[in-house]
Amino acid sequence: MDRMAGAEIRFDGFQQINEEGLFRGNDDAGELFKIRKSARTTEKALYALQPFNPGDTLIRFKAQEYLTAPNRFSVQLAENKHIILDPDCLQYINHSCRPNVFFDLPKMGIVCLNPITIDEEITFFYPSTEWSLSQGFECMCGSPTCLGHIRGARYVSPQVLKQYKLSEFIERKHLTYNRREVFYPEPLL
Question: Which of 69, 123, 148 minimizes the C-alpha distance to 160?
């Protein structure tokens, strides 16, 4: 089910976030998300204010800006093509090795992978859209299958990547990269 089907969303960035940090998608959707500190990382995070089921589109997005290189807040569409997301609240979707959403880039929507309950943090697997991050980081997701240091899909073994839903670009890039029999510069996860 597409919760946003037929709904018109105003992409006004933080103008949609009130003083309590609540993001409102539109009049029909009600309040969708809240931004607050993550219990895991103490960084700001996006939390659901409504339940979502696998296959639901939580929200649609568009490009606020196009970049030729990644930065901390960008999502990769293709080689040397990255976007800053609009609405701005989506920059608070943190990484997890056990994600509950996926960025459907052709449809420009965030799709639920696993049931999301009210007050659950919204997370995605960064290597699902990023070949090589601008800055690697130590994952603090707490999942039993946590990969530890996250740097992008380039540094994750094909066996591990098979466990995740990946963007079309990352799927193609990884196949091409592995076919050329290029050795990974450092040990894979």
Answer: 148
